Amino acid sequence: MKPFILANLSLLVLCFLATYLQITPWPLTLLLPSFFSLLPFFLNLWLIPGGFAWKNHHYNSPNLPGPMGWPLLGTLPQMGSLAHRKLAAMAASFGATRLMAFSLGATRVIISSHPDTAKEILSGPSFSDRPIKESARLLMFERAIGFAPSGNYWRHLRKLAANYMFSPRRISSLEGLRQRVTDEMVAGVLKEMKETGAVEVRGILQKGSLSNIIESVFGTGSGLEGEELGLMVKEGYELIAKFNWADYFPLGFLDFYGVKRRCHKLAVKVNGLVGQIIKERKKDGEFSGSDDFLSVLLSLPKEDQLSDTDMVAVLWEMIFRGTDTVAILLEWILARVVLHQDIQAKAQQEIDTCVGRNRHVQDSDIPNLPYLQAIVKEVLRMHPPGPLLSWARLAIHDVHVGKFLIPAGTTAMVNMWAITHDPSIWKDPWAFKPERFIEEELSHLSVMGSDLRLAPFGSGRRVCPGKALGLATSSLVARSASPPVQMASS
After folding, report:
1. Which of 281, 321, 327, 354 could bond to 209 as cystine, CB 3.0-4.6 Å?
2. If one looks up domain 134-489 in CATH, what number appears?
3. Residues within the annotated binding site?
4. The model's pTM
5. PANTHER family this protein is in (predicted)?
6. What DSSP string runs through 313-364?
């Protein structure tokens, strides 16, 4: 009801001025009739379920429930770092957990906080595209796997990812790299503990995650280039996170905060650096038989090869999306085992029993470590990376979701955080209990996207292609964290 209150306040202010001053100045005389005549029109624009962006989309089917929001802005003022929590509370207050409409400026949005409607959105062909922010487009992601529009080019990228880049054999071939990076991170934690008695793990995890993904993409020997790419990734995240009016209103000609200008400059630097690496690797001709992603792309059959421009976009996206997400997940794993010493002790005991203390945990050991897997699953449930599955979907034509008709061009989100904290789906959802995944009912629950009660990597045709690699990395680092974290917290 905020817009209605604002309209009434405006009217009260005008009346107050007229009565308090005991005069009716000629502008007010002209303004009051105009205001009263236009008031119904403006109220009609935003006093509708879902808000301003839904003004022309009321069909004969039932209206979607949702907040009216602010005039023109919709629910933009309520967005922020905890948007997933705010949207979950809104959906619950409107009784719209299955589907809720709201407006982000002139952008129509629906959001699902329930597995059933989430599956319709993520797995249905009607939502096969992704909306792309201006900053993401300028940073070349429109030519990469995550944001490329559905079609032949996107299907080609997905085929390359599945068959060559994220296949089980390729992930297995990178196990040595993951193990080395893990050992380096553990050594970094121990060193800081000895020198200062405290550890700020975020920097260590981000450095390790960046090193892992850059060597996975380019191979060894990328020293200075890796550091420069790390700075570019950091700037890219800053730009993606910045508010940009052009993402919500047709104001592409404006650049209030310099986002477009900075994105252009960063894209030029990325093109220059990654493009140069590709040229040098081609010139050397030493890429057959190597396991890094660049070598894989360069050694593809002629009919599958990408242009240099497309390779830059694909490799840059892998570095960008593969760095921060994994680091955040690892940080939450560490935080949880520090807070729950009993859980840490159980995980260590399982490792000692199944693997022993004389060798590293290997990928082949993970299936025999159910409690360690349960810890990772429980962290993904309580702290899903990208809790709104931020890479949302776009309706490519009019489509029904449940009993509601969704118009083409509508952005569709899934609030995975709301789903994983819903007491009607999860027993005691606010408690950190890895044991829930040991119990028979949930012991076989997969996080790979087949069960929408827990799908942190998405689902359907747009599921994250690197989910298996990310899970393998997090599992190995989770077991390596046990001894040093125990020392750090004692």
Report:
1. 327
2. 1.10.630.10
3. 464
4. 0.86
5. CYTOCHROME P450 78A7-RELATED (PTHR47946), CYTOCHROME P450 FAMILY PROTEIN, EXPRESSED (PTHR47946:SF13)
6. HHHHHHHHHHHHHHHHHHHHHHHHHHH-HHHHHHHHHHHHHHT-SSS---GG
